[in-house]
Amino acid sequence: MHQFRSFLSQVNLAYVSMDLDLRVLYVNDYFLQYTGYKREEVVGQNYYELFVTERERPGRIQEIRKALQTQSLRSYYEWDLITKSKSVKILRWNIMFEMDAEGTVIGITAVGKDMTDKRIAMEALKDNKIRLQDLFDNAHDLIQNISTDNKFIFVNRAWKEKLGYNDFDIENLTLNDIVHPYYKAKLIYQLRNLYKGEDVNKIETVFLTKSGKPIHLIGSINCSWQDGKPIATRAILHDITDRIKAERLQKVYYSIANLAISSKDLPSLYSAIHRELSKIIETHNFYIALFDEEKNAINFVYYVDQLSNIPAAPRPFSLGMTEYVIKTGKPLYASKADFMKLVEEGKIEVNGIVPEVMLSSPLSIGERIIGVIAVRDYKNPEAYVKTDIEILHFISNQVALAIERKRNEEQITIQNARLKAIFESGNHLMWSISRNFQLTSYNQNFFNDVYSWSGKTATVGMKLSTLTGAFISEETFGLIKSAYELAFAGEPQQFEIELDKGNGVSQWREVLLNPIYLEDGSFEDVSAIALDITEKKISQLALAVNEEKFRQIFESFQDLYYKTSLDGEFQLISPSVQEVLGYSQSEAMRLNASNLYVHGEDREQLLAMLFKQTSVRNFETTLRTKNHHEIEVLINSRLIFNENREAIAIEGVCRDITELKDTQRELIRAKELAETSLQVKNQFLANMSHELRTPMNGIIGMIDLLHHTVANEEQLDYIDTLRKSSDALLEILNDILDLSKIQAGKLQLNLTGIDLFYSLEKIHSLFANRATQKDLSFTYDISEDTPRYIITDETRLLQVLSNLTSNAIKFTNEGSVHVQVSRLGGEGDKHLLEFRVKDSGIGISEEDIQLLFTNFTQLDNSSSKSFGGTGLGLAISKQLSELLGGSIGVESEAGQGSTFWFTIVCQEAENITQINEQLISSKELEEVGHFEPSPYLLLVDDNQINQKVALKLLERMGCQADVASNGYEAIDLASQNRYDLIFMDIQMPEMDGVTATHELKKLLGTNCPPIVAMTAYSMKDDAEKFMNEGLDDYISKPVKISDLYDRISRWYGHNVESGAQTAEPVSAAAPEQNGLQLDMNVVDQLRSIGGDEFALQLYVDFEEETAELLEEARKEVAAQHYTGILSTLHQIKGTASTLGLDSVSTIAKELEHDILKGKLTLVSNTFSDLESSFTNFRTNYRNKILSN
């Protein structure tokens, strides 16, 4: 520290050290001499109270306290100091903190330099500045005064305007701030020399404007001195920016012209152009875009952008700024506002970020524009001035020429490379010969070929005779020489020569000679190209032989070959035309193909197919022969194309198939006859089986009744024999009916979800009694992995299983019969199930097994056979198992019992709840009881079929019932008889059910029995409406026996109590085969009531009744008397609903609704739908009912 203080004293710098309370701890001798104080007068005193004026003291203390608190100091402080003699001195202080060993600030140290004289000089200069301001402001040159510390003392108006700085900027700037970095070192060096007293006559430098733009300046500078010291400089500077630009522009212009020669390729050229252009204007964002006229596209071949490192992709010619410059053909200076104006006018579209300013110039070669060169700036709108666009446009012409020249050079290079590649590639031999028959050039193929034939090495200048003499005869050489002479006369030559090695090996060459023309039209050399055509020559010779063979085959061709133009004119036709059509070849060649077609549209169709598919096979048509006979032909034809894939002709082969077609028609007629016979047979079998089964049902029924009327043992035995015989006969008829359906293909599967366990239980229940009668063990078993709920046709499954079980019990006299069900496997959601029926019966021999599963076949055909049957059961089972997706078979030995098995393919059912509900519903018929004593009921319904069904149901439950067809009859009967319950239809002719109910309640009062609505209305709202009208309960159609039993049980023996019941919606029948919607649950219920014939008869009655009703209704509809068919519609709707014909019922209900609501425009179409639905019913209901 002592050495540092001594050093400061030697260089005339004041030094003072203070503690944190700003008391002076130390001052050097120079400080004491400078202030006039003695050391003891200063040390220990508060510095600011001793050396700072009262006016400035508070501010100074606050500033130094803040610096101590933040430990942050300025680079220097320029403060006044009061000496002991009260004079004011000015010092520039550099202040630093003093710290202890731990780094804690314990005081401050200040070193100051006297600036008093400089301040006085500066003030003087400022005075001069004011006086000279007016003079200097009128000067065009830039005038400036700066102090030796490079602060500006004065600048004139031209200086400010040129550089763009204001007075506030100038006060805070130094010379270092405005000098271009590249020129700063040189200018500082010149100023130092000036301060040393050296002459600096001229300076040349570059200042930066406020916007950062360089200004080139040249001028004179001198220095102001005071007391032998420099205090300021004055410079008068002239703006030479335009001159510098012009010089640089000229250099860049010539440099770009040379770039086309010096650049190795186009990318190098683009980069060099960018580099050269950056010497005269700002090019941080620069691109060159070239216009492809053929593709109408813009390709950005060079693209530099500060905001994107990704090169701009080529794009179709659109509405960008680049395209706008190309369209206008003019250079463009565009500010951001100019951009947006063009966008608003719809002249351009914005692609990317809009720059603050942009310069664009077309790249033109004469009148042709090849692209655009452009620079832009995204931040500084003053980056370019409008004169810069002139510079860019001036340069752009040279850039365009350089690019075009380089592109041409590259094209020439590529072309030369291609020519060289062509010259050296392929199998061609290429060479050239001068007028004196000397070799002037050749390719490698030629060199190798000459060497292989002669062993000589080809060289430029070698004579043609030397090259060819060894393997070409004199005669051939003379031919070659003559060809060369003609070529040198300007006539191109083409010829073939044969080369012979003399050992039986020869080759053929095809040679082409052409003069090599110069620009003036003269030529000195002839080029030659030779190609090995040996294989071609051999092929030509072979072709000649083949052509002779073809001619012979062609002339003996039995089918007709032809070739015609697209218009049908014959170009070629085989001699067989005489045999096929009766025309000679010459006669046929004068015909047009269209004249031969019996049906002209056939030729049009053939042509259309040819032009669509290019070839047609097996096209059948009829042609007319010369003697006007018609023959049927089969044509295979195709289009013939030229090298441009243009259709030019048609060729084909035509075969006479008249005899073949006659034979085919005979076969079809025979087949149709056979099919008709089979159909008649099947129909006969079906009709006969049905007609026989009807009286058989009557016979069986009478036998059952007769059984309960006799007590004589002998008569009972006769009756038992009759029962067995009739059952056997009925089974035979059923088998025949099934067989006829299967053979006719009318047996359709009804796939539903079933409980397999329940189905097996059915089989067991069905045959358990029969097995017990024969003292057989009858069991069944289902494996654990077998799904319980499956989707299949239960009826057909049980039919097969019943047949096999029945046979097993029939042919087993002792032992057991066991049914086993297991899952064999499956794929996806499919399961393969196997059913095995094993017995311990008589068994079957190997030869007899071959006879099984065929129609009407029995193993025991003797007159004394022990077992009866039609022999159809297994045949039907085989076909049913195949319909179910499986197969059937048997494993057996004579005397050892048999195992019959069959498989089915099924899916696992998911609607388990619905299946269980259906099972419960199916059991309800068995659960219905028999009323004791018998209730006395009144049934009110206008439909006879509904009456029959309901009476049968009531009869089965032990009820006695009267029938009324309308409300009047109901009132009449109810007033005469005391009924326990009345079932009332709602919609009836003459008096409806609601009105009848009101009248009965009024007439009978408390003696009125409960009245239950029984109608096709099915919704809950309907039920509530009927309850509100005075009816006591509600039941929907079609009526289920369980529901009927429930209502009778509810009201029989009870007093009348009104109460609303929940309506039961009618269940919709699923769509069936042939489009018929028939609820088979309803059919099964009707069968359970009165048997198959009763159920079928109800549908027959409905068919006859509805046909008559629709015939009458059709007349009303035609006359537009729509209200006249309402009663008819109501009757059809109710009956169809009862019989489960939901489609007919729904359409009748819809039609009834439309008429009541006045929607009469819909009536005609809806009535047609009703007739169609009824026709569908008539066509399909018998087969549907009889097949289930």
UniProtKB/TrEMBL annotation:
Keyword match Lyase: no
4-aspartylphosphate: modified positions: D985
Domain Histidine kinase: 687-908
Domain PAC positions: 75-127, 493-545, 617-669
Enzyme class: transferase
Residues in Response regulatory domain copies: 936-1052
GO biological process terms, semicolon-separated: regulation of DNA-templated transcription
InterPro entries named among the record's database cross-references: CheY-like_superfamily (IPR011006), GAF (IPR003018), GAF-like_dom_sf (IPR029016), HATPase_C_sf (IPR036890), HATPase_dom (IPR003594), His_kinase_dom (IPR005467), HisK_dim/P_dom (IPR003661), HisK_dim/P_sf (IPR036097)
Modified residues (Phosphohistidine): H1130
EC number in record: 2.7.13.3
Catalysed reactions listed for this entry: ATP + protein L-histidine = ADP + protein N-phospho-L-histidine
GO cellular component labels: plasma membrane
KW Cell membrane (keyword) present: yes
Record keywords: ATP-binding, Cell membrane, Kinase, Membrane, Nucleotide-binding, Phosphoprotein, Transferase, Transmembrane, Transmembrane helix, Two-component regulatory system
Compartment(s) of residence: Cell membrane
Topological category with respect to the lipid bilayer: Multi-pass membrane protein
Sequence ranges assigned to domain PAS in this UniProt record: 1-71, 128-198, 546-610
Domain HPt: 1091-1184
MF GO annotations: ATP binding; phosphorelay sensor kinase activity
Protein name per its UniProtKB record: histidine kinase
Organism: Rufibacter radiotolerans
Lineage of source species: Bacteria, Pseudomonadati, Bacteroidota, Cytophagia, Cytophagales
